[in-house]
Design a protein that fits this description.
The structure holds two protein chains of two kinds. Chain A contains 22 helices and 43 strands. Chain A is α+β, with helices and mostly antiparallel strands. Chain A folds into six domains: 63 residues, 2-Layer Sandwich (Phenylalanyl-tRNA Synthetase, Chain B, domain 1), CATH 3.30.56.10; 110 residues, Beta Barrel (OB fold (Dihydrolipoamide Acetyltransferase, E2P)); 197 residues, Phenylalanyl-trna Synthetase, Chain B, domain 3 (Phenylalanyl-tRNA Synthetase, Chain B, domain 3, 3-Layer(bba) Sandwich); 70 residues, Phenylalanyl-tRNA Synthetase, Chain B, domain 1 (2-Layer Sandwich), CATH 3.30.56; 204 residues, BirA Bifunctional Protein, domain 2; 86 residues, Alpha-Beta Plaits, CATH 3.30.70.380. The chains are: A alpha+beta, B alpha+beta. At the A-B interface, helix 8, helix 11, helix 13, helix 14 and strand 29 of A face helix 6, strand 1, strand 2, strand 3 and strand 6 of B.
Chain lengths: 800, 360
């Protein structure tokens, strides 16, 4: 909402410059999102009162204007035909920046003698102020403008753009903001007048109000103003509405809008002569009931919407928008004024269903005060009398099924101190609350009784009152302390700790971490998951996705990581290694999905040479496995690898990662079909782990193995084995020997002279004893035993 | 025989002169080693001569030869050691002279990789909180409407819902959609209180989602950290102290912090933490007079929302709301990462361009 400062100053003295006032309001929770300043630069331009107009001694068309500028009297030469004593005008002293009245360009006002008379400055036209093109006469200000005040304050051009939180509909009004200013600066508030002469017949004899659905309408105040004249509003009213960002229409409509902006209560004026049956009925709409709206559209209503009707048909959608049939027009002679209170949630639902967000609905949906309608009705009626010349019936009709007792809140001194951690004096608490319009009475020995003012629909409990006290004093003025007291028992979160270890391990091994969106497309998942898997675990869909790109909760990270790889390959020659750790969402019937922490890593491209340039060697299965083994080693998890088939991976180059007997992940090269579907040319190796599944296998601490002080005996052993035998089997047999400390593969070979169907694997074996130096005979005996087992179990022969 | 003995003693001077003369010619360690073998080795000339000692019958002769031979042996060993040291020194000098490297050449490059910048900031934030006594806990990202909204005092059809536009999961339960992607980490407050007893101090990080168009300062997916402390005697002063300490740990000890009133349905009183802009030092303008873009000209940067946990929420968790008070805070990590690194568009983070990620 836009709050013109000139309007604001009608209810409270603005004792601070606008930027400081804006800052104070903002830190008190009344956010001024921006200060809108006049179009031109008005620094130094002030209000002046014309005291005397004398003829210029040497020029018929000029005159000498003597004015009170607030800082003394000044005489200027002026050529405007409309200048007259008693006017309030805009005065620019020498040295002010202005818009040149003839050229339209910015200029600096210089000292000048005009036809022999020294001029101390200028009284200004609208064009010179950058307001309009009008340059025939000077701008005449409202008579109540105070000499010496900055013009910007008076003209209402400086305005606060407010960003009001949804709990404070009272601040969607100029008076509401004025109350905050008053409380923050210790000034008194000047309430607008609601006095008017009532004449004519009592309203209740002219029409009646019936609330059929009191759950949706808590109060309906109706007033009748007759014999009024619909015309343009007076200039001051038009200017105020314009300054607040609203377009003037006619005096009747403008007054309803003006009071809404002033007090925060939306009003509606019906043409009384269009009302049939002399009755207002507030009821739910009938099924398929139609209404021609003020904006020209026709809407079909539904029974969960509230309407204002007469005895025959709906006239308005309550709290949202009026209908065109009962609209006030140029010929309207009498109006029925509605000032009501509706159920906030219902207004919001209706406004959303009809896609009609109006100044009225945004106020009602926030839960307006039920005390406000009568005040607003009286205020509007006074303006109708003053401006439209209406005659007012003697009373107003006020149907108030939702009347509540005045709210009184008990606030103990102890609670105030407990919540704020601050000792406040009773006088301070009372000063703040009374400044905001609350009643505050101290009841010894220990508590305040706080009466909530009618306009504060947001205050319900003691903590709400505590916030009022704290925010007006200023949060920064209250004490600050570190936590003391008992430190809770530390409960580690093993899940997040393991996740962090995984990320550190992969990053330190040379993989870049990425973070991708949790939502993806079904098509992307279909590229990497078998149809039967997708059918078993149907990914959860978002009902209202931002875009089709982000529609399904991913059940695997594969697709997101591959998309990231694909986007980066062209700009990154050489090896690219990426990983992400994130949750996947495994559907769980109609319950919340199971959220599993997983890691997915990809490696693609060519290895680098000594200079970092890509060589001919492409990364593949063993590169993925190498990162994976590094990770598992850091976690002290012994894993086994078993060839497996997976929809996304290349058969023969894919393994299940087993820890204990449990499969915890997959490593392998991706199927070329999958790579191609992500626009990736070369081979891609990937591994995936279910991080949550690793946790049960983690050892709390590594158990120490003594280091032998005796020398090892190092030997090589080359075997010819059937081609399909996996290296893991001879490795296991060798490692099983009691003297073998270490064994590793150092060569694998097929081709002549190794016969077809066979392969050669060379092992480096290290024998060592923990308690003595090995003899040659001892080692030879063990080697023979190993070879015998290899020959027997694996059809191995020792290569000569 | 005497003549033979005389001959043996006479052999000493020629060996000596030959050895010393040859030594002068030697220029490297292998040459020196050959020289040592030729004179002092097992079959060296001096060794062979001395081996004949036991065969000499005449005691005087034997003693003369023994004494002269051993004296020569000691001398040759000494000059050998001296020469060896000289040669090694020369060798090192030569290696230094010939082995000069171009120290400006790079080492074989290792991969330039990092944790994701948002993850780094998250980690720093969590570490700061851990050090002031807030360990990490985890809760679900896909959440019930109850936890995300109702339990947080955000009833249906309340305008506060506009603060968190929701992505709904297309699953119905009891004929209604009730599952959603959590719009904030605040539901964690309820989840944590449900499974613990005071005193509670915890931070909960995680992804949140909003139905929101993206722009340079808004993403629809974000990583937030929620903090919660509940105990007998926790006050707003403690909240301010905790957040001020956090802000200084993340943004520097000399940061000024300020608090302003703000509204969140689940706290009362509610607040927002601001720090003075670390780019313009709170001036709102850069030294060259240009408006500071980091803080939008205001001199202050909004960091997070916070407040005292609403007593209804404390009571809903089954705690005595008269006795227990608490505070909660929530912050977006991307925003903090954006500020720390001067990133101009939040969308860079999850675009995952390696040329961007590698900088952090």
């Amino acid at each position: 909402m836009r709050i013109p400062l000139s309007w604001l100053s009608e209810y409270v003295d603005l004792a601070l410059p606008p930027p400081e006032l804006a800052r104070r309001l903002t830190i008190a929770g009344v956010e001024v999102a921006g200060i809108e300043s006049p179009a031109g630069e008005w620094d130094g331009i002030v209000v002046a009162e014309v005291l005397r107009v004398d003829p210029h001694p040497d020029a018929d068309r000029l005159c000498l204007v003597t004015a009170n500028t607030g800082a003394g009297q000044q005489t200027v030469v002026c050529g405007a035909p409309n200048v007259a004593a008693g006017q309030k005008v805009a005065f620019a002293p020498v040295g002010t920046r202005l818009i040149d009245g003839h050229t339209g360009k910015p200029t600096l006002l210089k000292p000048a003698r005009i036809r022999g008379v020294q001029s101390a400055g200028m009284v200004l036209s609208e064009k010179e102020l950058g307001l309009s093109e009008a340059h025939e006469g000077i701008l005449v200000l409202p008579p109540d403008a105070v000499p010496g005040r900055p013009l910007a304050d008076v003209l209402g051009q400086t305005a606060f753009q407010m960003d009001i939180r949804p709990n404070r509909p009272d601040l969607l009004s100029v008076l509401g903001v004025a109350r905050e200013v008053a409380a923050l600066t210790g000034r008194a508030i000047r309430e607008p007048s609601t006095d008017y002469p009532a004449q004519g017949r009592p309203a209740k004899r002219r029409f009646s109000v019936e609330i059929s659905d009191p759950d949706l309408c808590h109060r309906y105040v109706g007033g009748l103003i007759e014999e009024l004249r619909v015309a343009d509003s007076p200039p001051w009213l038009q200017e105020r509405l314009t300054a607040a960002g609203m377009r003037p229409i006619t005096n009747v409509v403008d007054i309803t809008n003006y009071v809404m902006l002033e007090l925060g209560q939306p009003l509606h004026a019906f043409d009384f002569e269009r009302l049939r049956g002399g009755k207002i009925i507030v009821r739910r709409a009938r099924a398929q009931e139609k209404l021609q709206m003020l904006d020209g559209s026709e809407r079909e209503l539904s029974p969960d919407m509230l309407v204002i009707a007469d005895s025959e048909r709906a006239l308005a959608v309550a709290g949202v928008m009026g209908g065109s049939e009962s609209e006030v027009s140029a010929g309207t002679r009498s109006i029925l004024l509605e000032s009501a209170n509706f159920d906030a949630a219902s207004i919001r639902r209706t406004s959303q269903a009809l896609r009609l967000r109006t100044d009225a609905s945004v106020r009602f949906e926030k839960g307006l005060s039920r005390g406000l309608p009568a005040v607003a009705a009286r205020r509007a009626t006074k303006l109708f009398v003053d401006i439209c010349g209406g005659r007012v019936s003697q009373d107003i009709v006020d149907v108030f099924p939702g009347k509540e007792k005045d709210l009184r809140i008990t606030l103990t001194q102890e609670r105030l101190h407990r919540v704020l951690g601050a000792e406040l004096t009773k006088a301070e608490v009372r000063r703040v609350l009374e400044g905001l319009g609350f009643g505050c009475r101290w009841l010894p020995p220990d508590h305040y009784v706080v009466r909530v003012p009618y306009w504060r629909s947001d205050i319900a409990i003691a903590e709400d009152v505590i916030e009022e006290v704290a925010r007006i004093i200023g949060y920064d003025q209250l004490p600050t302390a570190l936590l003391s007291g008992e430190v809770p028992e530390f409960t580690p979160d093993p899940r997040s700790e393991l996740r962090e270890t995984v990320r550190d391990a992969l990053c330190s091994a040379g993989m870049q971490e990425v973070i991708t969106y949790s939502l993806t497309t079904l098509e992307a998942l279909q590229k990497v998951l078998a149809p039967e898997d997708l059918a078993t675990y149907r990914p959860l869909r978002v009902a209202n996705p931002m875009s089709r790109e982000h529609e399904y909760l991913r059940t695997t990270l594969r697709a997101s990581v591959l998309q990231t790889l694909s986007r980066n390959l062209h700009a990154n020659p050489g090896l690219t290694a990426l990983f992400e750790t994130a949750r996947v969402y495994i559907p769980n019937n109609s319950d919340l999905p199971q959220e599993t922490d997983t890691v997915c890593a990809v490696i693609s491209g060519r290895h680098a040479d000594r200079w970092g340039r890509p060589t001919g060697s492409e990364a593949g299965f063993y590169d993925a496995k190498s990162y994976l083994e590094r990770l598992l080693d850091l976690l002290h998890l012994p894993a086994a690898f078993q060839e497996k088939h997976d929809f996304a991976y290349l058969p023969g180059r894919t393994a299940a990662v087993l820890i204990g007997q449990r499969e915890v992940g997959t490593v392998g090269e991706l199927h070329p079909r999958v790579c191609a579907s992500f626009d990736i040319d070369g081979p891609v190796a990937m591994f995936e782990l279910d991080i949550d599944a690793l946790r049960p296998h983690l050892q709390p601490a590594v158990h120490y193995q003594p280091v032998s002080p005796f020398p090892p005996v190092e030997q090589d052993l080359a075997l010819i084995l059937p081609a399909e035998t996996e290296a893991a089997r001879p490795l296991q047999i060798i490692a099983d020997d009691s003297l073998v400390e270490n064994v590793s593969v150092f060569d694998v070979y097929t081709g002549p002279p190794v016969p077809p169907g066979r392969k050669s694997i060379a092992f480096a074996i290290s024998f060592r004893s923990p308690d003595h130096t090995l003899t040659d005979e001892e080692v030879a005996r063990h080697r023979r035993k190993i070879i015998a087992r290899l020959e027997r179990d694996l059809d191995a022969e020792v290569r000569a | 025989m005497p003549s033979q003995t005389g001959k043996l003693t006479d052999d000493i001077p020629p060996i000596q002169s030959a050895a010393l003369a040859q030594l002068d010619q030697i220029t490297d360690v292998p040459g020196l080693e050959s020289w040592r073998i030729a004179f002092l080795g097992r079959k060296g000339r001096l060794t062979l001569l001395l081996k004949q000692l036991p065969a000499i019958q005449n005691i005087d002769e034997r003693r003369r030869l023994g004494s002269a031979g051993n004296a020569l042996k000691q001398r040759l060993e000494a000059v050998y050691e001296e020469r060896l040291a000289q040669l090694k020194e020369a060798q090192v000098a030569h290696a230094v002279a010939s082995g000069r490297l171009d120290v400006s050449l790079p080492g074989p490059p290792l991969p330039r990789v990092h944790l994701h910048p948002v993850a780094q900031t998250l980690r720093d934030g969590l570490a700061a909180f851990r050090n002031i006594g807030f360990p990490v806990a985890g809760v679900p990202e896909v959440e019930w409407n109850y936890y995300n909204c109702q339990a947080m005092r955000i009833p249906p059809d309340h305008p506060a819902r506009d603060m968190w536009d929701t992505l709904w999961v297309d699953v119905e339960r009891d004929g209604r959609r009730q599952m959603l992607l959590r719009t904030h980490t605040s539901p964690n407050q309820i989840r944590i209180m449900e499974r613990s007893q005071p005193p509670i101090r915890v931070v909960v990080p995680g992804r949140c989602y909003r139905f929101e168009a993206t722009d340079p300062t808004h993403e629809w997916m974000m990583i937030q950290v929620e903090g919660l402390a509940v105990d007998d005697g926790i006050s707003m002063a403690n909240l301010k102290g905790t957040l001020a300490e956090f802000a200084r740990r993340i943004f520097g000890r000399d940061r000024k912090v300020a608090f302003k009133c703000d509204y969140f349905p689940f706290v009362e009183p509610g607040m927002e933490l601001r720090i003075d802009c670390f780019i313009c030092r709170g001036e709102g303008r850069l030294p060259d007079g240009q408006p500071c873009r980091t803080c939008g000209h205001s001199g202050w940067i909004e960091i997070l929302g916070a407040g005292m946990v609403h007593p209804e929420i404390i009571a809903n968790a089954g705690y005595d709301a008269e006795r227990y008070t608490g505070f909660a805070f929530g912050m977006g990590i991307e925003r903090i990462a954006l500020l720390r690194h001067g990133v101009d568009d939040i969308r860079h983070f999850y675009a995952n361009d390696l040329r961007f990620l590698r900088q952090f």
